[in-house]
Amino acid sequence: MDLTENARRSLLPSFLYTSSSSRSLAIAKLMIPCCKPVPLAEADPEVPSGGGSVLIQAPNEPRKIEMYSPMFYAACTAGGIASCGLTHMAVTPLDLVKCNMQIDPAKYKSISSGFGILLREQGLRGFFRGWVPTLLGYSAQGACKFGFYEFFKKYYSDIAGPEYAAKYKTLIYLAGSASAEVIADVALCPMEAVKVRVQTQPGFARGLSDGLPKFVKSEGALGLYKGLVPLWGRQIPYTMMKFASFETIVEKIYKHAIPTPKDQCSKPLQLGVSFAGGYIAGVFCAIVSHPADNLVSFLNNAKGATVGDAVKKLGLWGLFTRGLPLRIVMIGTLTGAQWGIYDAFKVFVGLPTTGGVSPPPEPLTQKN
């Protein structure tokens, strides 16, 4: 190469006389200054690694939330508030009829007659009596339930290690959901007590603003937690069934009913799976937790009542069956909607939906 050629090249941009691959790289650097080099193996898994790099444009989408970071748990907590508070408030009419059927079966003999009695005696507004303590109580419960479930699921998985976490994942779901519900019910219990009293004793109070002071004056501040143990008895089995069965059902759906891997399914399809899995899980939840639900309603309605009084008055058969069909419809719809809303919120903030086929545990390698 002579001096004239060298001089000519020194005055021209290098990409005009380099090879085609080098020229493409240089053009990309000029046209896309925000790009950064990425190894070929990371850029495209089908391209064999053999050195070199390609450029990809820096993403313009909002920064995604890092899994298991404080922001991740905050997002799950917010999703729990939306999913539980809104859904429980929406089914207040069903809950109102159910509670009255449990407390006064002689008057509220069936679902249809229960709605008719409420309509005649209290009008349409009566169907939403107690909606404020319902919204506040179950929003607080949902925040703790979903937020702490994600925390405890990760915590117990880390304790077990990758191999045992995959092998005993159902036990981890059960332990994580039970731990979360213990905390969630402490947040729910005061509002649940006021809600039941307002819904089952006409004339007691219009709602939370006057119902809470009346309840405290009548029962004392500790009376707000009189139903905590029965509430644990209702909600802990319910939540264990809710989360463990949901995770298992969703995994089975993706594994056997949908031929496409979860990460390749559209978001609407994934949310549909979440709702279906939640509805089926809700049916199991209603059956498992119904006896304790009858106890909670009985204890919060009758001053000074005990568990023995409830069992004596309701009987074992009534304890397991009174109001059960309505509760199956209510809890199935409720649980399906909760999982749908919760996962929709996670998708909205850039997180993956809950559940799916678990990846196999990484093999343990021995150090040389």
Automatic annotation (TrEMBL):
InterPro entries: MCP_dom_sf, MCP_transmembrane, SLC25A3/Pic2/Mir1-like
Main location per the UniProt record: mitochondrion
Gene Ontology biological-process annotations: mitochondrial phosphate ion transmembrane transport; response to osmotic stress
Keyword annotations of the record: Membrane, Mitochondrion, Mitochondrion inner membrane, Repeat, Transit peptide, Transmembrane, Transmembrane helix, Transport
UniProt-annotated location(s): Mitochondrion inner membrane
Cited PROSITE patterns: SOLCAR
Segments annotated as Solcar repeats: 71-155, 168-252, 269-348
Membrane topology: Multi-pass membrane protein
Function: Transport of phosphate groups from the cytosol to the mitochondrial matrix. Mediates salt stress tolerance through an ATP-dependent pathway and via modulation of the gibberellin metabolism.
Family: Belongs to the mitochondrial carrier (TC 2.A.29) family.
Name the record gives this protein: Mitochondrial phosphate carrier protein 3, mitochondrial-like
